Amino acid sequence: MKAWDQGQILLTGGAGFIGSALLWELNRRGWEDVLICDSLGQDERFRNLIPLRFTELLSPSELLDCIGRNEVKLEGISCIFHLGACADTAEHNADFLIRNNYGFSRQLAEWAVAKGIRFVYASSAATYGAAAPGMPDDEEQLPYLRPLNIYGYSKHLFDLYARRRGFLSQIYGMKYFNIFGPNEYHKGPMMSFVPRGVRQISESETLGLFRSCRSDCSDGEQTRDFLYVKDAVRMSLFLAEVPAIQNGAPTGGIYNIGSGIASRWIDLARAIADAMGVPLRVEYIDMPEILKLQYQYHTLADIQKLRHLGYDEEITPLKEAVQDYVQRYLLPSHKYLGEEDLS
Length: 343
Fold this sequence. Notes:
This protein is of the alpha/beta class. The protein is built from 11 helices and 15 strands.
């Protein structure tokens, strides 16, 4: 039985990139009883919701008010996907990030645990910082992680809080790695490299990649664990479906959400050019000073913990994922999930 079979889903960040993709996948599976919590702001994220189906839209302050007043409208919630956060790694307002990414998460988790509601939340690979290759999702290692920016630290604080409160056996954290795919268009400079690369090639026939600032890593050889958003949401939904107890042990905890493959930036660049049917031309550019001290040269998700839990779906290879994204969504002028042919 799925965690939401007996009630409504609450999805925070539902108008955002991964949130709207998760709502799209729920709609594909025939589920529409979803309460969305998000701040639409002044960008174009509202367009992510236009083709999708849900029951109501609340702001974060309205949601917290409803929780404080114990409103009837929240009584039917049986599963929470908490994806709402400021994910701008260039944001420097530490107070805002801590309040938004840590404080709100803490309040929502306290309420969910007290009510016995399945709570699946977004952490981030940014919490690992310059961790050793493999980045194992081991809760015992949390105190030893050293995030490189305030965004990663704001996410790390909640992971630590959940561990300290003893919640991690009951809730499910997802350390998203480099997710890319449709519905990220509103993110501007924080979009993945794929849509920015398509634009660069369209405008100048050349892709720009950062030069390496380390002697042990050549230009273009920096690696990332890239994961297509369609795979990311399937993994996320799996954590809401898995039984709370399996083989006599609780299934709660923190799980890496990645491909399990470290791909080079030059590999991603080549996949973009191939999807567009053009030769690859790369220009290496200097890395901005602001990024040099917080740049991760290598990320790789160890996803064996998720596999051992029973997730057995095949992960879309990078080249195929980029081709699907570019040819079905980007080249037709930024199509949104829900507008494509689902046959």
